[in-house]
Design goal:
By secondary structure, this protein is of the alpha/beta class. It folds into two domains: 186 residues, Rossmann fold (3-Layer(aba) Sandwich); 132 residues, Rossmann fold, CATH 3.40.50. It is built from 15 helices and 14 strands. The strands form three sheets. The chain has a six-stranded parallel beta sheet, with helices on both faces. Strand 1, helix 1 and strand 2 form a beta-alpha-beta unit. Helix 10 crosses helix 13. The protein is globular, with a radius of gyration of 20 Å. The relative contact order is 0.13.
Length: 350
């Protein structure tokens, strides 16, 4: 089976979409599936206004068609609703080809935080984009239910995983007063970092990540430590050096960083928003409270062993199996036949 994934989010961006796609694809390849990508770098790109370092593709119909036909995929998955996703959707619709999509980003919330655009308009545009999709993949049951309630069709689950070989407890020290309260992610207005940085907390507040709001937040909160973007082992050590992982976002659809922190043995403090509520649920690995300061202080009491046990239940292999099953069902194929043909052996108890 050969699957082509079209995505407007790609390296060198550091975000949950890129990590989800690349890590799931690596797991799928180990199961015998040929995953290839159609990324922005295949086309001329321009910088997104007001978002330094983020570039979007300017794809032409002819080049999109040529690149897709060079790959000759069995299935096409459109991961994002940007210019490249729109053009690949157009290609599929024009030729009567089936395709699947995924819903990663709550654009209505993000756009309304930056511009006076009614959320209902953005939801309408997203609904139109995903309407022909054979499977609209959502990370959590709550997000899937919300999309169905907003009129989206063919909504299915595609859970996420965590790389426990990379993210795990280790001896690490940032050389800062403890306890260390850490937040990791894009430094942008929609991440609500100000709610974290304005808290009166003991020890140190640390932010890992970069983005358009970083300079302003550094000026406003000079006592916080901004370490910039990190990946790989350097990021894993930063997680392991923390005492509590703080997730102030109210708009994320999932939050891979939550699982990465838990796999590192670090409990979570967050608002009871859909992302952390869906990831953590009632598990004793985090504190969800509308009073974020109280959540941070209570999280210090959580046992690290509970966090490790919880994170160990989430694998990228299972995520890849679910993705492949969704693709097969969207084509009205027998997902078990498709999965076996790709040398995937799912757990029959799921």
């Amino acid at each position: 089976m050969r699957i082509l994934i079209a995505t407007d989010a790609w390296h060198p961006q550091i975000n949950g979409v890129v990590r989800t796609l690349t890590t799931m694809a690596a797991a799928a390849r180990k199961l015998g599936v040929d995953i290839q990508f159609l990324p922005p770098e295949s086309f001329r790109t321009v910088a997104l206004p007001g978002y330094e370092g983020l570039r979007v593709a300017l794809p032409s119909p002819g080049k999109v068609a040529r690149l897709i036909e060079d790959v000759q995929p069995d299935n096409i998955h459109i991961a994002t609703e940007g210019p490249l996703g729109i053009m690949v959707r157009r290609y599929c619709r024009k030729r009567g080809l089936s395709f699947t999509t995924s819903f990663h980003t709550r654009f209505p919330d993000y756009i309304s935080a930056r511009a006076p655009v009614p959320e209902s308009w953005v939801w309408a545009a997203l609904r139109r984009f995903h309407w022909p999709s054979g499977a609209v993949m959502a990370a959590t049951p709550a997000l899937a239910d919300e999309l169905r309630g907003r009129g989206f069709r063919n909504v299915v689950l595609w859970p996420r995983g965590v790389d426990t070989m990379l993210f795990h407890p280790r001896e690490a020290d940032l050389g800062l007063p403890r306890p260390v309260f850490l937040s990791v992610g894009r430094v942008a207005v929609e991440k609500n970092l100000e709610a974290f940085l304005s808290l009166d907390l003991p020890g140190s507040k640390v932010v890992v990540g970069d983005g358009p709001a970083r300079a302003d937040l550094q000026r406003k909160f000079p006592d916080a430590v901004f370490l910039g973007a990190m990946t790989g082992e350097v990021l894993a050590r930063a997680y392991a050096a923390a005492d509590v992982f703080v997730f102030p976002s109210r708009t994320d659809t999932y939050g891979l960083v939550l699982l990465e922190a838990l796999a590192s043995g670090v409990p979570v403090a967050a608002f009871p928003a859909p992302g952390p509520r869906d990831v953590i649920g009632t598990a004793p690995v985090g504190m969800l409270d509308d009073d974020l300061r109280r959540a941070c202080l209570e999280a210090l009491k959580i046992a690290r062993q509970d966090c490790l046990a919880f994170a160990g239940q989430h694998s990228w292999a299972h995520s890849a199996e679910c993705f492949l099953g969704n693709v097969a069902r969207s084509r009205h194929d027998d997902p078990w036949v498709a999965i076996r043909s790709a040398r995937v052996v799912p757990d029959p108890r799921r």
